[in-house]
Write a structure and sequence with these properties.
Blueprint (H helix, E strand, L loop, with lengths): L2 H21 L3 H12 L6 H17 L6 H24 L5 H18 L7 H18 L3 H8 L4 H25 L9 H20 L5 H22 L1
Helix pairs in contact: 1-2, 1-9, 2-5, 2-10, 3-8, 3-9, 4-6, 4-8, 5-7, 5-10, 6-7, 6-8, 7-8
Length: 236
Amino acid sequence: MSAEVLALLAATVAVAAFVQGTSGVGFALIVAPVAGLLAPGVLPVFLLAAMVPLNLYVAWRERASLDLSGAGWITAARLAATPLGLVLLWAVPERRLGLLVGASTVLAAMASLAAPAFTPGRGAYLGAGAVTGLTETATGVGGPPLALVYQHRPPAELRSTVAVCFLVGEVASLGLLFGTGRGHADQLWPTLLVLPALAFGAWLSRLVHHRVDADRMRVMVLTFALASGIVLMLGV
C-alpha cells in the first residue's frame, strides 16, 4: 500500500469517525466504498478492526442512554447470522467484493432514506441484527439496519446502542474470519497506521455531538454513501 493511498484512507477514517461519533452511524458507509476503490484486499478486516476502538469509545461516552433490551435482541440475532456472512464471503470472488460492497451500500442507503417512521419491537430488533450479521461479516457494512431501527429515537440512545451492537458483532466477525483463515495479519496493519486519524475524528465528535442536528447529519451521510457506492460499482 503506497503512502498516498494510506494518507487518503487516514483522511477518510478521520471524517468517518467524526460523523459516526456525532450521529451514531456512517463510518462503514463512508470508509467501505473508499477502501473498496483504493485497497479492496484489506476488506472487510480493515473496516471491522478500525470500528472496534471507535465503538468502544462511543459506547462508553453514551453509556447512560443505552437501550439494553434492544441491544440484547439485536446482538443475539447478529451473532446467530455471523456464520452466514462468512459463507457469503466464501461465495464471492475477491475481485467482486468491491461490487458487493458498493451494491450493499447503495441498497442500505436507499432503504434508510426512504423508510417511514415506526416504533421498533422485538421483530425489528431481530431482523436488524440478522441482516447486520450477514452484511457486516461479508463486507464490513452493517450500520443501516440498526440506524433504521433507532432513527426516530433520541440521538444519544441511537449512538450508544448501535455502538454496543457493533462492538460485540465486530469482535465476533473478526474472530470468525481469522479462525477460518479468511482474515490475515496484512489486512490489520493499515488499521494501526490510521488509528491517530481515527482518534482525531472521534475527539472532534466529542466537541459537537450534542449540538449537531442528527437527522440532518444522517441524511448527509446516507447521500454521500449512495454516491460513493455507485462510484464503486461503476469502477469494478
